[in-house]
C-alpha cells in the first residue's frame, strides 16, 4: 500500500509539513545587528576585565594614608574596591543575557550592548570618584 502524502492541516502554504517555520537571517539589517552585537559584546568583555582590575588597582591609593596630614576613610575605600568589580560583573552578565535573548528572538540588540559598555564605564568612574573622595591629602 502507498501512504498518502502528508499535508499541512492548516494549509499555510508551500512549506513542508513538520519543518520549523523560522525565517532565515534575511537582509543586511539582521546580519549587521548580529555583527555589531557580537563585536560590542567582545568589547564589553575585554572592558569589564580591565575595569574590574582597575578598580582593584585603586586600592593602592590608600598607601598614602600613612603620610603626615593625610586622612582616609578606609571603610568607604574598601567597600568600593570590593563592590566595584562585582557591579562590573553584574553589568556584564546582565548585558550578555539580554543581548543573547534578543538575538535569539531576532530583535535588535546592539543598543543594549552599547548601554552595557557605557554602564561599565560609569561604574569605573564612579568607583574612581568614591575612592578619591575617601582620601584627603593634608599637606
Largest sheet: 2 strands, antiparallel
> What's the SSE pattern?
HEHHE
Assembly of the depicted chains:
single chain
Please list the strands of the largest sheet in the order they lie side by side: 1-2
Structural class: mainly alpha
Helical residue percent band: 55-70%
Low-confidence stretches: none
Integer-rounded radius of gyration: 26 Å
Kindly state the number of beta strands. 2
Distance between the termini: 100 Å
Provide the residue-averaged pLDDT. 85
What form results from the Cα inertia axes? rod-shaped
Strand content: under 5%
Number of helices: 3
How would the blueprint of this fold be written?
Blueprint: H1 27-57, E1 71-72, H2 74-104, H3 110-134, E2 135-136
Antiparallel strand pairs: 1-2
Helix pairs in contact: 1-2, 1-3, 2-3
Question: What would your notes on this structure say?
Answer:
- 63% of the residues lie in helices and 3% in strands.
- The N and C termini lie far apart (100 Å).
- The chain has helices spanning 27-57, 74-104, 110-134; strands at 71-72, 135-136.
- The mean pLDDT is 85.
- It has a two-stranded antiparallel sheet with strand order 1-2.
- It is mainly alpha-helical.
